[in-house]
Design goal:
The longest helix has 10 residues. This protein is elongated. A hairpin with a 4-residue loop joins β5 and β6. The chain has a domain of 71 residues: Pemi-like Protein 1, Chain: D (Ribbon), CATH 2.10.260. With 109 residues, the chain is α+β, with helices and mostly antiparallel strands.
């Protein structure tokens, strides 16, 4: 299995290949074992690779025709909300609809 590390977009890309080079620090190729985890299979990543890409507990995985792409998950709560609210305000999409008067509304129990 060929492990290619793309520096610009910070993701790991796995392509089926049989050329191996164990240069982990500089982002080369390495041989990794597929291990049993219950009824599934898994790959153990060296700590230096996890640290380099800031991988903690989760990754995004994309399966393509060429292989498996694994990217770190950005765990920033509410990332992009401020920009979205500003955009909504500029487009006047942040105005609440008219709230009906409860006295004019007949509730059914």
């Amino acid at each position: 299995m060929d492990v290619s590390i793309t520096k610009k977009v910070k993701r790991l890309v796995f392509f089926p290949d049989f050329n191996y080079n164990y240069n982990v620090i500089t982002g080369g190729k390495m041989l990794v074992s597929v291990i049993r985890i219950g009824n599934s299979r898994g790959i153990r990543f060296p700590k230096v690779v996890l640290d380099r890409f800031g991988i903690k507990d989760k990754v995004d995985m994309e399966v393509t025709d060429k292989g498996i792409m694994i990217s770190p998950v950005e765990d920033i709560p509410r990332k992009g909300w401020a920009e979205a609210f500003c955009s909504m305000h500029e487009n006047k999409e942040d105005i609440l609809d008219d709230v009906p008067n409860t006295e004019d509304f007949e509730w059914e129990w």
